[in-house]
Structure formats: structure tokens, C-alpha cells
Amino acid sequence: MARNLKALVLSGGKGSRLRPLTYTGAKQLVPIANRPVLFYALDDLIEAGISDIGIVVGDTEDQVRAAVDGSGFQANISYIKQDAPLGIAHAIKAGRAFLGDSPFVLFLGDNFIREGVVQHVERFRQGAHDAGVLLKEVDRPQDFGVAEFEGERLARVVEKPANPPTNLAVIGIYFFTARAHEAVDAIRPSARGELEITDTIQWLIDHGADVRAEQVEGVWIDTGKHDDLLEANRLVLETIQGRVEGTVDEHSKLHGPVVLEPGAVVERSVISGPAAIGRDTRIIDSYVGPFTSIDHGCVIEQSEISGSVIMENTKVRALGHRIEHSLIGRNVEFTGDQRKPRSYQVVLGDYSKVSAP
197-225, pLDDT tens digit by residue? Predict the structure, then answer.
């Protein structure tokens, strides 16, 4: 008989690798193609037939609730408070009442997996094993938990080893039965004071649990870094279909697939897709290049932007040359003068103000 799964999605981390963007906002709400990265995780789980989803939240609980509740996901969403960021395994402990004795998927909310998780969820649903981990070949396995095998059997999971036994990283998507709770209760905090998910998996292996490992063949991105988030933005924009629900004047041109949300206005400008322009954003006397997402309520005036992510309610005006490969936060004011430097490459946090030469 197929197992009925729940899901636990982690959305409580501090996002230190994306600072200064995440000083005032949840890292899981940083947008990819104008949708929070967290939404792609929820999409994947719902597509895989999981309707009971618990979101583990921390200091940014109000932001996460507002974003998710306003988006109409067809699922039963619960919010689980984690009082302190004490590790991924601690989040399982925090979610104990929600999970009950159900098997579940544990999904880190800043993971992006382009091909989704349907096939992996289905194998766990139909199987009889106690746990499962997804693996991906990476260039720097020493930065991850790494899988080690004895023949075809997963034997060990080592956290950030100096000399990795393989290049197979354990990515942030896991599958567990209720036996995980026994493991979480048995392990102790690591040197950094956290209950580690790698220790949880290792405890299960050492105590005879059947722990399976599967490789992800498609694209997986940990969006916690600037370059990786921009790459995820590019990958999503590659798949969009053009849709114009805003206003484009006769002096403007749209090339390639462009999403123009309701209320957006384009005046005397060129937008080269793929690109996504959010609702009530104004593009005036400007150029927006490929693989750019500009969220809602922004103003881009007398400026050029390409290959970048601009978050909501930001104003970019009169810059002397093009912004490229950049990530600019919410409520930013970025204004130039008459001098013309060659280009800007920036990461600006929420409420920044920059006057550029």
C-alpha cells in the first residue's frame, strides 16, 4: 500500500550568505523570476501529490505567512515555530506534533530543483525503506555533507570532510518514516551547537535502518549565494511564455518572451526577453536586457539593466551605464548623475541608497 506523506519545509534560516539582502528579509523569499524561491519548493511538493505541508519558521515568520497565505496554494499549510536556528534535525523535533507518525519529505526552502521531485517522492511513497537522501555531483564536495558507499549501500554521510570520499553531495531534500524521531532524540548537538541532519541519517544507518540514496540527474541549485540565485533566475526565465497584461507605448519594443504583469507601464523603452516585469512597475526611457526580473512597484528610468534581479519597490534612475549580473533588494534607491562609468556589479540590501557617479 502506498504511504500517505506529509512535508516539512524549512524557512527559518538567517541567510548569511545572501547578506545584506537577508538582514531584513527571509532568504526563502528572495525572488526567482518574481516568485519567492520558497514557492518553487511548495510547487514541487504539491505537484508530487502532497497536500499537508508544515512550514518551519523563525524570526521572519510574519513575512513568510504573508507571502504564502496570499498566494492561494492548493494545500493545507501549517506554520511551525522554531524558536532558534538549532539545526535541520531540530526542525524535525519542532515539527513532531504536526508530523505525528506519518512518513514525510523534508525540504529546505531555498533549494531549487528544476525537474521537480515527483519521481523521487513516488519511489518513497511506494517503497518500504526507512529513509532516503538525494545526491548531486558537485565541484566542491568539501562544502557539503558527502555520501560514502560500500558497494551500492549508503554507508556513511560525512559533514564537510576535508578529504571527501566522493563528489556526491547530500542536497537539502530528504525522506523519512517516523523512525527519524527516534534518531533525532538520540543524537547530540554538534560542535556548532546544532542537531545535524547528517548525524540523524548516520544514526539510522548505524542502527540498521534501510536508507536509500538517489542521484538527481537534472539541475539542482542551492540558492543561498548571489551567483547561484541569478543562475536559477536565468533557468526559470528560459521557460517562460510571453504575456503582456500591462501597457506598452508606441515608442517601445518587446523582443522575445516578456512577462508584463497588470499595471506595468513601458514607455520609450526596449525590453529584450526572456524577462519578467512585475505589476505596477514603470520602465521609462530604459533598456532591460535578457534574463532580468524586476519585481512589483519598481521604477526603472533612464537606465540599462541586464541579467539581474531587482526586488520590489526599488527605484533605479539616470545611471550612466548598464547594471549587469546584479541582485538589488527591496525599497532601494539607486540614482546616478551625468558621468558615465562602464558598468556596475552590485549586491544591494533592502532600503539601500546609492548615488553612483
Answer: 999 999 999 999 999 999 998 889 888 77
Question: CA 189 → CA 50, 57, 133, 197, distances in Å?
Answer: 31, 20, 21, 11
| Cβ pair 130, 176 in contact under 8 A | yes
CA dist list (Å): 214 to 134, 172, 173 = 5, 13, 11
φ and ψ at residue 128, rounded to 5 degrees: -125, 10
Question: Does residue 20 have a cis bond before it (omega within 30 degrees)?
Answer: yes
Q: At which residue does the C-alpha cell 504583469 appear? A: 261
Where are the alpha helices (H) located in 36-140, listed in sequence order? 37-47, 61-69, 88-94, 96-99, 118-126
Q: Cα(104)–Cα(121) distance, rounded to whole angstroms?
A: 9
Phi, psi of 324 (to 5 degrees): -130, 145
Separation between Cα atoms, residue 74 and residue 82, nearest integer Å: 24
Give the number of other Cβ atoms within 10 Å of residue 40's Cβ: 23
Alpha-carbon distance of 168 to 261, in angstroms, equals 40
Per DSSP, what are the bridge partners of residue 33? none
pTM score, whole prediction: 0.90
Distance CA 199, CA 158 (A): 8
C-alpha cell at 236: 526559470
Short-list 87, 88, 109, 174, CA closest to 135: 174
List pLDDT tens digits, range 243-297.
Answer: 999 999 999 999 999 999 999 999 999 999 999 999 999 999 999 999 999 999 9
Region label for 193, one of left (φ > 0), alpha (ψ between -120 and 50) or beta (otherwise): left
